[in-house]
Amino acid sequence: MASLTSKISISEINSLSDKQFESIFGGVIELCKDAAVQVKKKCPFQSLEALCDAFQTYLQDLSLEDKVVILKLHPDLAGRLADLGQLTQESTEEQKAAGLDKLTSEQKRILEERKNRYNEKFDFPFIICARENKIQSIMEGLQVRYENSYKEEVAIGINEVKKICRLRILDIVKE
Ligand SMILES: NC(=O)N[C@H]1NC(=O)NC1=O
To answer: What is its EC number (predicted)?
Structure first.
């Protein structure tokens, strides 16, 4: 999954410059370089878990409005960007892992319908950690989570972003 050929250790991370840190961790939250800028200020990290915690705290401490901004930075599942081959490398591989590149036309139609309905209700995309799911659970999630309140869905969406972020960090850092 990682674009790096080999993983780096926590002590190597602790000796990175701001620029290096931002370039390595700038994508662990989709298109949100600010997370890496803010988390770098917490350096040094005692462990991989401490590094993951710092990103999770960054997400948790955001206002409701800023959490929504983060959700909106995420691409649609099997959406237009995927069709155009314009997802980030991370998202491309995650969506593939869930089998979203192999939808039948019927599955694509149902997914499209449920995503649109979700988007119309919440005005942000449905976010789920694709690597921890398959087509079936994504379809079911869309159905079940549609019933939630706005606040509940922001919280659940951010929780999924935390899972995505943690897995992306594990692709970069030696355990
Ligand atoms: N919309 C959405 O959930 N997008 C994503 N999920 C994930 O694991 N990678 C993504 O790009």
So the answer is: 4.1.1.97
